[in-house]
Design goal:
26% of the residues lie in helices and 29% in strands. By secondary structure, it is of the alpha+beta class. The protein contains four helices and twelve strands.
């Protein structure tokens, strides 16, 4: 009898909060959905483009504090630098802005911006050639991530703005507790 009461209670709760047919639809969708797979970094980088993770900002005299107040100090203990006049091209993609993020004065992240979906695909190929292949279902995602022991590489593109971002993030030097990969403010 106790089992019946529990079953009825569950049905009543689902019926009141969510119609039963919607609950069943979500259950079926959940069973059909393929889980998202993250790419694994097979060649862990020690930095990017001559910049080494953990290096002090003073080691790069060409870097200057970012002039845009919206990006200059996004979080406590995080300082953002740029190299005025720097031009970097990877696999035919020339980046618009490059920001170097230092956490407690040590290099912990690099963000590069680009335009165009075709450039996203060129960068995806460049990253795959160096750091590891992306599972096919992941290629359709708005953001693709490669995870290593100490580094996350994130490639994102927004079709509405035609803007993309490539991040190299050293997990040991982020202002987060590393229990999440949410670095949106970083």
């Amino acid at each position: 009898m106790t089992t019946k009461v529990r079953d009825v209670g569950l049905q009543i709760t689902i019926g009141k909060l969510v119609p039963v047919w919607i609950a069943h639809a979500f259950l079926l969708i959940g069973l059909w959905a393929e889980p998202a797979l993250a790419a694994v970094i097979t060649n862990e980088p020690k930095g990017f483009n001559g910049y080494t993770w953990g290096a002090l900002s003073a080691e790069y005299p060409s870097l200057k504090p970012a002039m845009d107040p919206a990006v200059a100090h996004p979080l406590p203990d995080v300082d953002v630098y740029e190299n005025p006049g720097e031009v970097l091209t990877l696999n035919g993609v020339t980046f618009g802005k490059i920001h170097y993020r230092f956490y407690k004065k040590q290099l912990g992240g690099i963000q590069l911006t680009f335009e165009g979906r075709e450039n996203r695909e060129k960068l995806r190929q460049w990253i795959e050639d160096r750091y590891g292949k992306v599972p096919p279902p992941e290629r359709k995602q708005k953001n693709i991530e490669w995870h290593g022991a100490n580094t996350v590489i994130s490639l994102g593109y927004d079709i509405t703005t035609n803007q993309g971002r490539l991040w190299f993030i050293y997990l040991l030097l982020t202002p987060f507790d590393n229990s999440t990969t949410n670095t949106s403010g970083y």
